[in-house]
């Protein structure tokens, strides 16, 4: 990594979604020996063979939002950048779309919009289709249609030996199951075929509430998670304390995928409160995701982490209090901005087919809340201290939630820190099954050796 501090001016030099785009500054600072930009599956297969022969290490980049640096760029190794795999083909019967692994959701939604269609995918435009989908994928449609990983019909995958597989539920059922949550570990996916559905305009936006509404927001959020009966309504909560004075702002991101009015009743409890601002309106999915994109600035230094807890009001509030304490320790870090996310994982989001998925979440565990940190800052000198405080936050939340019985082992891969044992969080039975699948398709165990930068099935630690 470069030793240069990331300044705000330096941050702005990061290009907007070019091949060198990475969401986190730490990834942009890694210097690979070589960057390969394949234009088709044959290029990817040939590249893997060369990597193997040379004994180099590699990393794969799709949309570039990986929350930890080594996951998506290979220091002194080969970075395989999929950004030229951009084909998007809607099927003749309009029920599916084949997407190149380098596409971002904004591009996909725009194309689907022209056909009156949507798909289960990311909530911001710049996020990559393949990274988000293979890690799980929480969407504006997940209560009705499940996670993104459970809405894939087929994958084109290049194995460590260069062989290309077409994976469907019928052709390779074991691998098809494993792809749902651990797809990035088996090889390089070059194309995904996703289910589509008819979609017109949706209702949605973000409403921000001042600190005085803290109690009411947590009450309303907890009630929404436990009692909402409308599968078309989705909401998640984002807490931030920009001034770090203990006066957090609470932002509800709300959506309804078939709005009959500007006021979907599912959100009545939030609408009783007066927001500082609100962007809720009826609009296209792409328009909504573009707005969300503009709220999530790339190029800062970031630290994330993911945990999950059973949804209990007192736990949700306790976590916010632990977060306040942690953030107070970082008051001297210039440019530090903390975001704490509460993302519901509901029983309705579990796969409805006979395949299941690798995530290891059971109906009786629900509702869960994914608790993710998205902390950002500008100066490299604060990296160590901020990471230590983030780790202490995790320890404190784990201790508190184990003590009150609301702890859950699941960690969401797509927001996890590089050293979290995500696949252990899927449950030991699922980890064992995933390891068996991995050794069947990669008998020499090449993938973990050639691609050491990603979170490994075995749980070996990354930095
Ligand atoms: C601002 C922001 C908004 C987000 N919004 C959402 C959201 O709405 N819902 C949600 O569920 N998550 C969301 N996430 C989390 C997101 O799902 C993850 O960051 C995800 O890893 C992004 O995928 P990517 O393709 O953009 O990233 P990349 O960094 O390109 O990929 C992520 C990881 O997957 C691997 N990978 C990617 N593609 C392939 C492939 N084709 N073959 C093999 N390995 C591959 C990469 O090597 C890397 O390790 C968000 C993250 C951010 C930063």
From TrEMBL:
Q: Does the keyword Oxidoreductase apply?
A: yes
Q: Please, which domain of life does this record's source organism belong to? A: Eukaryota
According to the entry, every stretch annotated as the FAD-binding PCMH-type domain falls at 28-199
Matches recorded under Gene3D superfamilies: 3.30.465.10, 3.40.462.20, Uridine Diphospho-n-acetylenolpyruvylglucosamine Reductase, domain 2 (3.30.43.10)
Q: Which GO terms describe its molecular function?
A: FAD binding; oxidoreductase activity
List the SUPFAM superfamilies: FAD-binding/transporter-associated domain-like (SSF56176)
Would I find Cell cycle among this entry's keywords? no
Q: Which UniProt keywords apply?
A: FAD, Flavoprotein, Oxidoreductase
| Family membership | Belongs to the oxygen-dependent FAD-linked oxidoreductase family.
The record's PANTHER family line, in alphabetical order, gives: BINDING OXIDOREDUCTASE, PUTATIVE (AFU_ORTHOLOGUE AFUA_1G17690)-RELATED (PTHR42973), FAD-BINDING PCMH-TYPE DOMAIN-CONTAINING PROTEIN (PTHR42973:SF13)
Name of protein: FAD-binding PCMH-type domain-containing protein
């Amino acid at each position: 990594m470069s030793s240069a501090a990331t300044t705000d001016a330096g941050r702005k030099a990061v290009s907007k979604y070019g091949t060198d785009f990475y969401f986190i500054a730490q990834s942009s600072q890694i210097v690979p020996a070589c960057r390969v930009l394949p234009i088709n599956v044959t290029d990817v297969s040939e590249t893997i063979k060369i990597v193997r022969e040379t004994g180099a290490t590699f990393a794969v980049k799709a949309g570039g939002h990986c929350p930890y640096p080594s996951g998506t760029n290979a220091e002194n190794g080969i970075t395989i950048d999929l950004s030229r795999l951009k084909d998007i083909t809607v099927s003749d019967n309009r029920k599916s779309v084949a997407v190149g692994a380098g596409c971002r959701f904004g591009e996909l939604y725009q194309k689907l919009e022209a056909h009156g269609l949507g798909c289960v995918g990311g909530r911001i435009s710049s996020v990559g289709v393949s990274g988000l989908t293979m890690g799980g994928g929480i969407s504006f449609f997940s209560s009705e249609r499940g996670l993104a990983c459970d809405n894939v019909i087929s994958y084109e995958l290049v194995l460590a030996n260069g062989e290309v597989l077409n994976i469907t539920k019928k052709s390779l059922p074991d691998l098809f199951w494993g792809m749902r949550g651990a797809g990035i570990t088996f090889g390089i996916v070059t194309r995904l075929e996703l289910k589509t559905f008819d979609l017109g305009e949706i209702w949605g936006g973000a409403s921000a509430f001042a600190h005085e509404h803290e109690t009411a927001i947590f009450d309303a959020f907890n009630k929404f998670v436990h009692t909402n009966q409308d599968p078309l309504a989705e909401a998640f909560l984002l807490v931030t304390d920009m001034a770090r004075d203990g006066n957090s702002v609470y932002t509800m991101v709300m959506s309804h995928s078939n709005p009959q009015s500007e006021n979907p009743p599912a959100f009545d409890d939030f609408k009783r409160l007066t927001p500082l601002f609100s962007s809720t309106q009826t609009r296209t999915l792409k328009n909504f995701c573009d707005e969300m994109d503009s709220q999530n600035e790339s190029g800062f230094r970031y630290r994330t982490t993911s945990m999950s807890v059973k949804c209990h009001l007192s736990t949700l509030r306790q976590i916010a209090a632990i977060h306040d304490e942690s953030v107070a320790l970082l008051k001297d870090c210039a440019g530090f901005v903390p975001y704490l996310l509460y993302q519901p994982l509901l029983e309705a989001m579990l796969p409805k087919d006979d395949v299941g998925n690798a995530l290891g979440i059971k109906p009786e565990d629900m509702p869960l809340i994914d608790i993710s940190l998205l902390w950002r800052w500008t100066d490299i000198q604060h990296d160590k201290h901020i990471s230590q405080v983030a780790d202490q936050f995790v320890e404190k939340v784990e201790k508190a939630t184990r003590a009150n019985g609301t702890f859950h082992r699941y960690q969401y891969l797509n927001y996890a820190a590089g050293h979290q044992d995500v696949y252990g969080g899927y449950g030991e039975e699922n980890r064992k099954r995933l390891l068996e699948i991995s050794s069947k398709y990669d008998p020499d165990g090449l993938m973990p050796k050639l691609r050491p930068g990603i979170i490994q099935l075995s749980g070996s630690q990354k930095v």
